[in-house]
User: Which sequence fits this backbone?
């Protein structure tokens, strides 16, 4: 009887181990590729979009879109179209499911890719909660691909040398506008 009970627990233990290993790999993978996953509170996301002046005419690209909260807030509350770029396959699938569940397919999408390899020229707003070094590496790409007037809003870490046009120091949110004197190379 005891052996039967033990044997029935092995599949559960294997499943828990598998989920744990996949979770750890997922965290390490995103950290290596740009930034670890850290969920931004919804109110902070809302503040990011407000500071950037997002409206129905905008196409918002969220770099490292995680669970998709920027996408659904941008579409549902601000009327914008939104595209997430997420390298983590599990968060990508989660966001795909969220978009479908919330019936946002006409206004939102997520791409499973490295954001350094995605064409951002359709974006009028880019949101980023990345690391300091990642922001630095991303500057040339943003300056090259974004149209004049596009806004970049960053949480926590600045884009060094670019003029901040709006900010919320308490939430550490910084907005940049492409075409200003210090955002090109």
Assistant:
């Amino acid at each position: 009887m005891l052996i039967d009970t033990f044997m029935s627990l092995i599949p559960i233990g294997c499943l828990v181990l598998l989920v744990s290993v996949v979770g750890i790999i997922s965290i390490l993978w995103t950290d290596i590729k740009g930034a670890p996953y850290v969920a931004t509170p919804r109110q902070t996301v809302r503040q990011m979009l407000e500071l950037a002046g997002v409206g129905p005419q905008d196409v918002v690209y969220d770099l490292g879109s995680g669970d998709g909260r920027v996408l659904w807030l941008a579409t549902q509350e601000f009327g914008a179209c939104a595209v997430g770029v997420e390298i983590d396959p599990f968060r990508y699938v989660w966001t795909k499911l969220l978009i479908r569940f919330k019936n946002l397919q006409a206004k939102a999408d997520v791409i499973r890719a490295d954001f350094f390899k995605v064409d951002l020229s359709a974006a009028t707003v880019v949101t980023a909660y990345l690391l300091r070094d990642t922001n630095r590496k991303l500057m040339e790409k943003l300056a090259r691909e974004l149209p004049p007037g596009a806004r970049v809003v960053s949480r926590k870490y600045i884009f060094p040398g670019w003029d901040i046009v709006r900010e919320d120091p308490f939430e550490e949110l910084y907005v940049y506008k492409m075409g200003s004197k210090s955002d090109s190379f």
Q: What stands out?
A: Confidence is low (pLDDT under 50) at residues 17-21, 26-32. The chain has five helices and seven strands.
